[in-house]
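**User:** Here is a favour to ask of a fellow structure person. Please take any protein you like and set down a full record of it. No explanation is needed for now; the record alone will do.

**Assistant:**
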Amino acid sequence: MIDPITIGAAFALAKSTIAGVQEAIQLGKDLHECSGDLIKFFDLHATVEKGANHDKAKASNSEMAQALESVMQAKGLRDARRKLKEQLIWSGQGDVWEAIEAEYNMVVANRKREEREAEAKAKLKRENLAETVNILFIGFVSILAAGFIGWGTFEFIMYKLRN
């Protein structure tokens, strides 16, 4: 679990990083020169999003304060991202933003597909294990039943031979 202090620090760092990138773009710097800061921003953005989705029961703030803080941080980062997109489009680098979004969508789709495949594989493994246990149980019960039938038959034959 990510603690609220780490989330707050990541949020502040993300805001300052994106402000630096936006200033660099305004000064006419190439986006390639800012790519490290952009990567840092999106990493921190992901950290804040993950932190907002985790249980914050140990935090000292009330639930309403935590909810308000999460919503405001998410809105601030959304606004910063929208502003970055607009700046890139206005500076003539809209194709770069489109390429970033396309790659992002592909990465997310691949990750979700891999998660679904892993979940399906785990489910299949559980089903196979349950089937194996079921077969072993039926086999054990069958062997016991056959043993009891054989023992009963043997006792019946011995009883008939004595009489």
